[in-house]
Amino acid sequence: MSHQDELPVNRAILAVRDLEKSFDGVCALHGVSLELRAGEVHAIVGENGAGKSTLTKIITGAIQADAGSIEVRGHSIERNDPNVSRALGIAAIYQQPALFPHLTVAENIALPMEMGSSRQTVNWKSRNRRATSLVESFGATIDPRRLAGTLSMADQQIVEIAKAVGADAKILLMDEPTAVLTEREVERVFALIRRLKADGTGILYISHRLEEILAIADRITVLRDGHRVACRNAAEVGRSELIEMMVGRSIASVYPKRPVPIGNVALEVRGLSNEREGLRDISFAVRAGEIFGLTGMVGAGRTTLARTLFGLAPAPSDVFLAGRPHRIHSPADAMRFGIGYVPEDRRRNGVILEMEVAGNISLANLKSVSRRGLVSARSERELAVRYVERLRIKTPSIATAAGKLSGGNQQKVALARWLATRPRVLILDEPTQGVDVGSKAEIHELIVDLAERGMAILLISSELPEILGMCDRIGVFNAGRLAGILASSEATQPRIMSLALGHG
Amino acid sequence: MRIFEETIRLARTWSREIGVAATIVLLYAVLFFGGRTYFSAENFGDLFLANLPVLIVSLGMLLIILTGQIDISVGSQFAVCSVIAGVAAKAGMPVALAGLAACAAGALFGAIGGGLVAFLRIPSIVVTLAMMIALRDGLRWSTQGAWIENLPPGFQWLSLTQSRFTTAMAVLAVALVAATAAGLRYLKAGRAVLATGSSEAAARITGIRTDRVVFSVFALTGALTGLAAALNAMRFHQIPSNAGLGLEMKVIAAVVVGGAAITGGSGTVIGAVLGVILLGSVGTALTFLGVSAYWEQAIQGAIILAAVAINLAGRRRE
Ligand SMILES: Nc1ncnc2c1ncn2[C@@H]1O[C@H](COP(=O)(O)OP(=O)(O)OP(=O)(O)O)[C@@H](O)[C@H]1O
Ligand SMILES: [Mg+2]
Q: How far is residue B143's CA from residue B194's CA, in Å, rounded to a whole number?
């Protein structure tokens, strides 16, 4: 605790003191202080809704604190806003996507810098040149003239990172920059962080992947319910201690997988191809009670397969459900045949931000909460309360608009909606992305429960420990093909990686 | 090979504009074989002057739509500004000053509407609907429906000959179009307009004052509406008190036919201009082709629907 108190003040490039912030009477930050040194990676961890994103937004001036002070290199900022903070060398990668979908990659990268300068015109040539070199320095090739909205999630994230880095920031705030990236891309981000660190940039790093935190951070600040509960040297804390500080209790087993009786084949796919969407000759079968993992690089075809099975991408051939062939043309078809789907990009496809939490949860379950064709407010409320408790969704009430929840809690709302539908086959695309450790265990528990009741589960995940810990069998994608299917007994991290990279 | 790829890329980015341009070419090809008389310089001059207000106002409307807003009060603003220009001219003001008065009045109306939308966050459709009714009825009440007549000499045609006036207006139109297009592409303020419409949340954290952007495009559109009203008034001996009826629909339709997304963030000046040309030509063209005037509106509606459908299909493919 006392490390930072002994610190000579002149080495801190950023210091925030006693920040207070509430939203409509709900306290998000309470007396939070923190110092960031030059060349340091300072991680912030905490449960969903602990106040991490709020803290970063206050530092960039995207929102204003109710009380407290921010000092950059010893000078306190009087009135903060995004232009002021950028002029002081602060850049941020936000948890919510902050790209302009209709504008080009080059413009997305250039705009923040230009807004801070006094020049009134823009130069397209230099914009494009700069964007190309920035993206390339990151080991990616993205046409700077493409519209940002047409990029994959991973590429969009790379543009976000390029944008922040391009601003030549001395203080870089990264709010879950790796949530949508796979391990290989995460390695690239880390390489970049090390480079920036060597140049003396101070980095505030937020993530729910504790392995990442322990690998990259120098110091760790733990937030709980808007309070700072600890600030420690990363070398001095272990994973379990960290978890305990975050959630205020210990979490016993990380993966609660139990053996459950495996039933008949619930879903079978035979030689499914879709050239236009890049899927080739996919065959596999999932049985009732089984958890079938799908992994591979981002863009290898996992999500496309899920979308095809749910009728969101054109289905070129039949799918066998309980042995009977069906052609799925739309999500309504899929739901009728007993398939449920939790999409990956829950920020865009998941919650309805203006709608209250209860409405969001009951949306796919209107039949089960209705009496004689009318939605019963009571059953709707009961359903919502049940899942809010079960998934530990942090919300002032079930009548709060979903858009007001923290990023991770929004994800949990979307998850609750589909878990509540009780389909025969449930496809989960990255169900624990951006979710804190405590809730993650809760979600894993719930998935195992569902399998135990005879649901067949397709679990898509980029997190290998999750795949290895949860699944009975694992299908590994490589470039649109199922490169191999491994039983959990024979699956190891290196084997999966080599299949995913096409060496298998 | 590179040139080929580049051509494909350009064709793709400009596919909407190319589609509208192709339709215009097709329309004129049909006309060419159907009724040669259409192609007289005089016809073109008349057609141009009749559509000049739509063109000028659509430049402003494009900006408003790019920010994700809408203004349906431009028709009523147009009526009030016409009358103001006439009254000012009759009161003995020089013509330029009368025109300026109309612009200022328009800017004021735009600023009021824009202020309510931007700073009080009232939806623009509500604000401008109220403004549309208030201005129109206020005008009816204050003029009692009377037209403004006996305008001073020198007001009509700016004391030029009609053909000189037409040429001057053509130069002005080209200048306005070029200025808007260049401003939108090369000025930081122009990029802020697109950014605001593409994602307001992202714009705000990028440091763009989205409220000011929205306020400004409404005020600017008001000023353009005033200008259009003054120039239009100069074509006649008197000024009706119900000018600009339905102007808002023509303008919005032109912008949308030109490929702008009604949800903001995407659209071009070229597209809007092509939209004005297409919708402006259809009506007169049908008359020349001997199609009953009753069909005109229906066919315009069909064109708008087709354009929006094609536009949406294109977006979905992306
Ligand atoms: N715009 C808002 N309106 C109302 N409440 C808000 C708003 N933004 C955040 N909150 C509340 O503030 C608290 C902290 O939210 P914050 O987004 O900082 O959490 P977080 O630590 O980033 O969580 P996560 O890990 O889920 O991203 C939450 O309880 C959230 O509901
Ligand atoms: Mg957050």
A: 40
